[in-house]
Structure formats: structure tokens, C-alpha cells
Design goal:
199 residues, mainly alpha, AhpD-like, 9 helices
Length: 199
């Protein structure tokens, strides 16, 4: 099966994801000193999600990954709404349900609506997309399928984005493609109360 295959509901046709964790989240009572250092503050703020307690199994990796992830999520030059569109589209293409669920929440805070989420799932061919949104989704699809943004899409986005923003487009999609691979492969399960893909 290739990345271009489609399932009956229009989503990318890919094998089922693990229904149970392959790498279990580190339980609170088993935290090492290093794990306490970075998971404790998340626990205190109510943001101790399965993704973090799973990646905490590898403290050195966790620490360095969060530096890059923190830039993409909080300091990127892209408007927050644009970032969330890129993240949601690559999460949908990778069929990373955990990523989709978390970023629907974040996307709502950035101004995305149920209609936007529908369009993101449909992709750049959605009939009622604004031109800018279509270019964002097109860039994501091209990176997913060909690991390169086409000349046409690059030129179109460059009319409104700076060079740094163009770089952040690529790194945002790349970061969340990587995160999707980890979530899917490690079997990270939805947090309690987190909705996944629309039924």
C-alpha cells in the first residue's frame, strides 16, 4: 500500500494503529529524578498527557526533543492558525489520531472551526477553501508525498510569507510528521476525555 492509497472514508489508506501502548507511559510512582524534573510541572498544570509520560521513558531524548518542539509550538514565525492547519493536515495524512485530537483542541483556540476541520480532512481539493488555506494544505501534502514543496506552491506561499516563515512551514510539517510516527509506532492512546477522529 502506498501513501496515495485511500480508504473508503477518504482518509489515507494505512494499516491499523496499535490498540494498546507498545511503550507504556511512565507511572507516577516510578518517576526517576530526571522524569520528576520535567513531568512534575506538567502534572501541576494539568497538562501531563500520555505523549509526555510516554516519551519520558527516554529522558535524554525527551529533553532535547522538547527544545525543538517548543520552538515549533510557541515561537514559530507562523500565525498560530496557520501552524495548526499544517499540524492537523499532517496528522490526518499520517492517521495519527492522538495528534489530531490534541490539535483540534488547540486549533479551536487559534480560531479554527468545525468547517475548517472538515476542509483540512478533505485537503487542498476541498471546494470552499480560501486560497491561503489551500496553499498551506497543498504544501503539507507535497511534503508528505514527495518530501519537497513544488515550485508553484512555494511561489504562491512566498507572496505572503517571509523566508523565515517558509522555513517554518517545512519544519512544522516535518516535526509533526515525526511526532505522528512516534505516536503511531509507540501506541500512544488518547487521554481521558480527548476526542479522536470524527466518527
Amino acid at each position: 500500500m502506498t501513501r496515495e492509497d485511500k480508504s473508503s472514508d477518504g482518509s489515507p489508506g494505512q494499516r491499523p494503529r496499535p490498540a494498546q501502548p507498545r511503550i507504556a507511559p511512565v507511572p507516577r510512582e516510578a518517576w526517576s529524578e530526571a522524569q520528576q524534573e520535567f513531568l512534575g510541572p506538567l502534572e501541576q498544570t494539568g497538562k501531563l498527557y500520555n505523549v509526555f509520560s510516554t516519551l519520558a521513558n527516554h529522558p535524554d531524548l525527551y529533553r532535547d526533543w522538547t527544545t525543538f518542539a517548543g520552538y515549533i509550538l510557541r515561537r514559530s514565525t507562523l500565525p498560530r492558525r496557520d501552524s495548526e492547519m499544517l499540524i492537523l493536515r499532517i496528522g490526518w495524512l499520517c492517521q495519527a489520531e492522538y495528534e489530531w485530537g490534541q490539535h483540534v483542541r488547540m486549533g479551536r483556540r487559534a480560531g479554527l472551526t468545525d468547517d475548517d476541520f472538515r476542509r483540512i480532512r478533505q485537503g487542498p481539493e476541498a471546494p470552499d477553501l480560501a486560497d491561503h488555506d489551500r496553499r498551506l494544505l497543498q504544501a503539507t501534502d507535497e511534503l508528505f508525498h514527495d518530501a519537497c514543496i513544488s515550485d508553484a506552491t512555494w511561489q504562491a506561499l512566498s507572496k505572503t510569507f517571509t523566508m523565515q516563515q517558509m522555513m517554518d512551514v517545512v519544519f512544522t510539517v516535518g516535526e509533526y510528521n515525526l511526532v505522528s510516527m512516534a505516536l503511531n509506532s509507540f501506541g500512544v492512546q488518547l487521554d481521558e476525555g480527548l476526542e479522536g477522529f470524527p466518527k
